[in-house]
Amino acid sequence: MAFQISLSPSGHHYTSDATTTLLEAALAAGFTLPYGCRNGACGSCKGKVLAGEIDHGKAQPNVLSDDERAKGMALFCCATARSDLTLECREVGNAKDIPVRMLPCRVQKIERVAEDVIILSLKLPTNERLQFLPGQYIEFLLKDGKRRAFSIANAPHSDEFVTVHIRRVDGGAFTAHVFETMKEKEILRFNGPLGSFYLREESTKPIIFVAGGTGFAPIKSIIEHALHHGEKRQMHLYWGAQNRAGLYLPELPSSWPVHYVPVLSNAEASDAWQGRSGFVHHAVLADFPDLADAQVYACGSPAMIDAARADFIRAGLPEEDFFADAFSLAPLGS
Ligand code: FES
């Protein structure tokens, strides 16, 4: 049986049933309520039931006290509906609403997907989940106190592992470690989520995603999130790399219902490339000479981002509709 759930003060509505937690149903409907562990252990999802009946599920008194229950509080990651409900809770509208945390993680899987690209899958401790907005990044804390930032490549709904795409940087000590000596089960520490590169869901304009190399990672997260929530806006993805190997997940973008254009800037004869060539943002401009009615999300090298911003604005893109995340590479030897 479906129950109608209303959120206060936003006035948003969604439906849930007697077996899906109020948090899971809200997330599935595209409403981002706060959470930490999604398992009754942290209290981050606590909110008030203003009207209606719930089942508290596995909520434990050390996280939700009897006194709090008596006052109508509930853990939305444990509670299920028994009637139509009105819930009082804060919704996560932007990055500032999500606390930045320092978390340990274990390297679960190291996948070499190209000569110079590794995908790391990271497992958080039991009872921890990382809440983030698709497009945000984490920052690894290294033993010498330095930090290295990488975008989160998975979408929030698929968060069993936090995945990052790491390109080898010549002379970079951290990436050298990842490529040469890192072993599965290694423990790392990171800080996150960070950054303001995430999908502005209030717009209805068509979206053009521009990715350079591993700049594909946050864009993958955003697109998978958008598709999961049935995004109706037109989406175009331009993914640029030097050669065919640089498009290191070649099947994935073609499997999405988005208009996908791979672009190579330096194809080798062995690539036998028949597709688009040149700078990735030039390919966008060739297809969209007028960008007045689009939104662009771009992630790649600072040079790519700067050139794209200038040329797109010249093509009519409103400056406030250009969202970018530029990699800043660590100095050589660090
Ligand atoms: S998300 Fe941690 S208790 Fe609900």
Question: Care to describe what's here?
Answer:
The chain has 334 residues and is of the alpha/beta class. The strands form four sheets. The chain has a six-stranded antiparallel β-sheet, covered by helices on one side. The protein has a six-stranded parallel β-sheet with strand order 17-16-15-14-18-19, with helices on both faces. A five-stranded mixed β-sheet has the order 2-1-7-3-5. The N and C termini lie far apart (58 Å). It contains seven helices and 19 strands. Strand 18, helix 7 (302-314) and strand 19 form a beta-alpha-beta unit. Residues 329-334 have low confidence and may be disordered. The chain is globular and about 70 Å long. It folds into three domains: 3-91, Beta-grasp domain (Ubiquitin-like (UB roll), Roll); 99-194, Beta Barrel (Elongation Factor Tu (Ef-tu), domain 3); 207-326, Rossmann fold (3-Layer(aba) Sandwich). 17% of the residues lie in helices and 31% in strands.
